[in-house]
Write a structure and sequence with these properties.
It contains nine helices and 19 strands. By secondary structure, the chain is α+β, with helices and mostly antiparallel strands. The strands form six sheets. Strands 1-2-3-6-4 form a five-stranded mixed β-sheet, with helices on one face. Strands 7-8-13-11-12 form a five-stranded antiparallel β-sheet.
Length: about 350
């Protein structure tokens, strides 16, 4: 049981506080101390306090990309609960604590394109640049102009332009150096296309909309179609649906060099037959991206795989789920089984997308 809360300068503070309810997996042990900040100043003050005292710090937004160990976190967990949605023409500024899917809905209502296909993604706005969140043909890196963050090295609030964010597939300088920056606000440049979406890039989305890739559709249609696609895969949060007790896609899609892809292709043909072609998408010069979901399925880990409290989603092979009574160790045991099985079958090592705290694969 956690101790009663107390308020210090309007900042809510708890001790021996459960962290599982703050994550979409609903997994993980308690934090020594839990602080909830509702303003940028409170965020900065909490970070400075932890750094000056040498206390380990865990920053939590929407908790949709976290795997916390069963022993919990020995330090200060900081929940960023800041609010702020400001539109100026096509320019959007979001506070880090804004609920991402709500913000997307508001931009669609405002008739602005650029993030409509990122509807339904759980989590907070502040997490989007860290992971370079993307889905259905859009990534936030294409619309982010600046990230405002507290720099724990220089002890200053800094404005980082897009070109200095080092964005790549599900990666950024913030993810590469997780101990340095705490995101406070994110600025975007959206598009006024007279109520139409950005050009539809993703083939599955185009098929569902009945259009060709490159076409534009009404913004609301794009958003609703993506929500239906995500919901069908258990990728829209629903407390009653254990397929959504997950972190969404647990593994990133592997990006292989020419040599790696050739070896992979050979393994596919040996295992599945000469007529089988694995998914392959250009990923920059000399590199090819393939599908983690395809690899998992073809290695024998089909939808619903598992007999314990942690299993693969019944709706999508890329999601590992808590069926209600799992521990983090249950989840990691399943994840390791999948990684080993895919490596043995195809020679490709899957990499987890969620951030792990106190544990690792």
């Amino acid at each position: 049981m956690s101790a009663p809360s107390r308020t210090l300068e309007r900042v809510q503070e708890l001790h021996d506080a459960p962290l599982a309810p703050l994550t979409t997996f609903r997994l993980g042990g308690p934090a020594t101390r839990l602080v909830t900040a509702t303003t940028d100043a409170e965020v900065v003050a909490a970070v400075r306090e932890a750094d000056e005292s040498g206390t380990p710090l865990l920053v939590i937004g929407g908790g949709s990309n976290l795997v916390i160990g069963d022993k919990g976190f020995a330090g200060t967990a900081l929940v960023i609960a800041t609010k702020g949605f400001a539109l100026d023409g096509t320019r959007l500024e979001l506070a880090a604590g804004e609920v991402w899917t709500d913000a997307v809905a508001r931009t669609v209502e405002a008739g602005l394109a650029g993030i409509e296909c990122l509807a339904g993604i759980p989590g907070s706005a502040g997490a989007t640049p860290i992971q370079n969140v993307g889905a259905y043909g859009q990534e936030v890196s294409s619309t982010i102009t600046e990230v405002i963050a507290y720099d724990r090295t220089t002890h200053e609030t800094v404005t980082i332009p897009n070109a200095e964010c080092a964005f790549s597939y599900r990666h950024s300088r913030f993810k590469a150096d997780p101990e340095r920056f705490v995101v406070l606000r994110v600025r975007f440049e959206l598009e006024d296309a007279n109520g139409l979406s950005a050009p539809v890039k993703y083939a599955e989305t185009a098929r569902a909309l009945g259009v060709e890739p490159g076409d534009r559709v009404p913004l609301a249609d794009a958003r609703e179609t993506v929500l239906k696609l995500r919901s069908g895969k258990g990728m829209v949060l629903d407390p009653e649906d254990h397929d959504t007790w997950s972190a969404g896609s647990f593994f990133t899609n592997p990006i292989l060099t020419e040599e790696e892809f050739a070896a992979f292709h050979t393994r596919v043909r040996e295992r599945l037959g000469d007529d089988v072609e694995p998914p392959a998408y250009p990923a920059g010069e000399g590199r090819t991206k393939t599908s983690a979901a395809w690899l998992i399925d073809k290695a024998g880990f089909t939808k619903g795989y598992g007999t314990g409290p942690a299993r693969i989603s019944t709706k999508h092979t890329l999601a590992l789920t808590n069926r209600g009574a799992a521990t983090t160790e249950d989840l990691l045991t399943l994840a390791r089984e999948v990684v080993t099985g895919v490596r043995d079958a195809f020679g490709v090592t899957l990499v987890n997308e969620p951030v792990t705290v106190g544990v690792s694969l």
